[in-house]
Hints:
This protein is an alpha/beta fold. The chain has 14 helices and 24 strands. The chain has helices at residues 22-30, 48-60, 86-89, 99-106, 125-133, 164-174, 190-201, 233-245, 261-269, 307-315, 333-340, 370-382, 393-396, 402-408; strands spanning 3-7, 13-17, 39-42, 63-66, 72-75, 83-84, 108-112, 137-141, 144-148, 156-158, 180-184, 205-207, 213-217, 225-228, 249-253, 273-277, 280-284, 294-295, 320-324, 344-348, 351-355, 364-366, 386-390, 412-416. The longest helix is centred in the first third of the chain and has 13 residues, at 48-60. The protein is elongated. Ligand EPZ binds next to helix 1, helix 5, helix 6 and helix 12.
Amino acid sequence: MDKLVIEGGVPLAGEIAVSGAKNATLPILTAALLTTEPLTVSNVPHLRDVTTMLNLLAQMGVRVSIDERLGVELSSARIAEPVAPYELVKTMRASVLVLGPLTARYGEARVSLPGGCAIGLRPVDQHLKGLQAMGAEVAIEHGYISVRAQRLRGARICMDLVTVTGTENIMMAATLATGTTVIENAAREPEVADLAHCLNAMGARVRGAGSDVITIEGVDRLHGARYRVMPDRIEAGTYLAAAAATGGSIRLTGTRPDILDAVLEKLREAGARITTGPDWIALETNGAPGAVNVRTAPYPAFPTDMQAQFMALDSVARGTALVTETVFENRFMHVQELKRLGADIEVEGNTAVVKGVAHLDGATVMATDLRASASLVLGGLIARGATTVERVYHIDRGYERIEEKLSKLGARIRRVR
Length: 417
Ligand code: EPZ
């Protein structure tokens, strides 16, 4: 397994480009199942999770071709079998996103029940509730979700809780249902809106995506389209937090500042000076950041996917910070590892008390989930001496060429095979 070895203590400086958003790419790739015509997607990030999704779609019979600039063309003229097997689903829960499109297009789907993962149980009851409301029969047998439907009917669905992929699954299923579907208490994440824009480019009639009420008028069929994925706001936030934590100054291009308000606000509160343009963000700091309290919640509040990274920043900030996780029940796996680097963190329920220390000291640490591993890389960039982050396959799931981008910003980091 690959490791990353980091010599910390270097303030990050320089300019890098932000890649396409993982959490917009994944649902958009499954949208190809909704039409027989080719869907061409550009700005696709080169990530493990994207490769996994492309493998899953290819296994179903989708023809996948990738051009030299990583543009992906998918055509689902005929699907061999509408099944997402356990072997693939267990490596990536987002595989559940094929459920809605398969049910809408083929009237049936079998998807392995995604198990829990490091950050929580992560059930899919809301996904199933929505499909049942549209007339699908759902059964769970031998660890698989089986869904059948003659033709889905539009319905009014109020989600019991905010779920990003739950909203996306139901929205995709509704595009080919008869009649109109209204999703209330929908997730407002920008990636949901990006998927809606792609579906509308394919001839769907989705309105209100990005707000908590989404209306979808079903149509008989969707056609192919060419679509460019939005930039990754969590990747952008991660590099900004890394620069603030190391007392550096960086500039990000190919990004959008309007989808990171909560994160930019917290970075300013920590003492960073931030300027933005339509597609760039510049951050300048001098010296250690000030401690900032963080409380995660669905968009537009502070994103749970940025919680671990801010805990690394707070670990060397001036003062004490409270970090509260309200979305997942077990997203503090990084705490023990940050403490191995010398951080002073105490967890009480879903809140961590982080007392800023003068410095961290390099050590060997182990990644457990995608964003926890990002916070360990930040810890290594901050710490004096060498830090080895093991199991970096977690990182490769969500960060494109991380050691290349960090090296460009002056970090002393290398990958050890
Ligand atoms: C999406 O996961 C993202 N993944 C996650 O990013 C992100 O952390 C999460 O949204 C929250 O923003 C993708 O978009 C591929 P949820 P998702 O359904 O949709 C509970 C990353 O690091 N819930 O919004 O799976 C659930 O247990 C990943 O890129 C139910 O109870 O998250 C959780 O506590 C990690 N029943 C909460 O809702 C359901 O049917 C939010 O989950 C669905 C969810």
